[in-house]
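Dear V.,

Thank you for sending over the compound details. I've combined the ligand you provided, flavin-adenine dinucleotide, with the protein sequence from our construct and run the structure prediction for the complex. I'm sharing the raw inputs here so there's no ambiguity about protonation or stereochemistry in the SMILES, which I know was a concern on your side last time.
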Amino acid sequence: MNKYQDKYVDYLSDESKLQGFCDYIEFPTCEEEVIDLLKSNNKENSIITVQGGRTGIVGGSVPHGGLLINLSKMDKIFTIDDDILSVMPGVPLFAINEFVNREKKGYFFPVDCTEKTASIGGIFSTGARGPRNYSLGDSIKYFAGIEVIDFDGRKHIISTEDEKIYNYYKKEGKAGVVTQLRLKLLKKAEHIWGIVFLFDRTEDAVGFAKDVEESKIENIMSFEYMSASAIALIQEFRYGMDKLKGVPEFEKDVHMIYTEIFSDNEEDIERSAEILMDLAANNHSDIDQALAVSTEDDLDKMANYRHAAAECCNMSIEQAKKSDNRITKLSTDISNIKDICHYVNLQTDIRYVVFGHMLDAHLHINFLPQNYHEYMEAKEIIKRVSIENYLKGATIFTENGIGKLKQYILEALKETTPSKPPYLL
Ligand SMILES: Cc1cc2nc3c(=O)[nH]c(=O)nc-3n(C[C@H](O)[C@H](O)[C@H](O)COP(=O)(O)OP(=O)(O)OC[C@H]3O[C@@H](n4cnc5c(N)ncnc54)[C@H](O)[C@@H]3O)c2cc1C
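Below is the predicted structure of the protein with flavin-adenine dinucleotide bound, written out as structure tokens.
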């Protein structure tokens, strides 16, 4: 086996900035090599960590000793058969999107995790999803099946119709190595519009979301919230981010809802846009400041802007880590939150930003601690907020996984209500 050497140091962490260590590291290129590796490591107490694109934010792919299996060299895209695309696990999402755009025009792979360098194996294993999940449903719907090697080196071919798929979906590499995936492609809508609405207060953005939900507009694709603090953070970092060129500089003290609506018929979109404008105005949004986009290029820019909120948090953590190496990413992944205003208006002096999927009541709070004391305090706040919301029926781990960094929350939830299993989905 390939002994770990310092040249592999980048493989010891992910985007959570947690730092790990390992004894051996391997880069298999095919299923047979994975089987050999797992068979030769099939001993009691052997530690195996599976790694995809290392964009995870909970340290799931960060090794703590033993063997690290990195899948970046299993990056073949096979052919499209009907509407099904077969791929190896190390293929990044952007490569899948480019391939489908080229080879099956008018179709797309619906799982829109905003981090496009995430591997498809990682996306499946964390249950990652994105803004369009609101209309398209959970990511499992878009996997037709997988091939997986368990830690005894046995191969399983599992279709998504088979309940056994849930032994591996969202299991964060704990049950085996996914070596091939079959992805379902969908036809694109003829028209998509994105509209930005700005609000002075979170309460107004939340009121708007409630009204939109009640209005039962049928063609909403995504409905993303960004707090004023998230917009201010992007302002701080945006000059180093080429992909934000052409996106307006929004005022620092406004909260944003970015929604996308879709249809094959442009009149439907216009009708929905008008209803949205009225509802936003009823919730004190200045409609003259609303911004609508409809070209693929402009929609991409807005997607980049939304993604920048997450990226800038990670950059801020990276900066703080220079002063204390123990600092890592600190974020929540709670959905089905009952009282959003209470959830986002935290009583703390520690800097934090909020963004996420408002209509799924799935907002991520990201703390930006400046030192270790703040880091520890923020960890406690996350624990408290998780327990509070868990007791109200919220889902605590939705799309990012538990990894190594959120084990302490899982333990706290188990202690709080031993009779009730923590909500995972
Ligand atoms: C800026 C930014 C934005 C993000 N936005 C989103 C978002 O919109 N939605 C979202 O859900 N997540 C988001 N994420 C988190 C991250 O992109 C996802 O968790 C993604 O699924 C991780 O994929 P990966 O290939 O990088 O996996 P890794 O980080 O390498 O691994 C993640 C987990 O999956 C396991 N794993 C990886 N590959 C396999 C395999 N083939 N077989 C078995 N187990 C495997 C690992 O063991 C680990 O537990 C974001 C991250 C960043 C940095």
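A first observation: The first strand starts at residue 24 and ends at 26.

Warm regards,
I. M.
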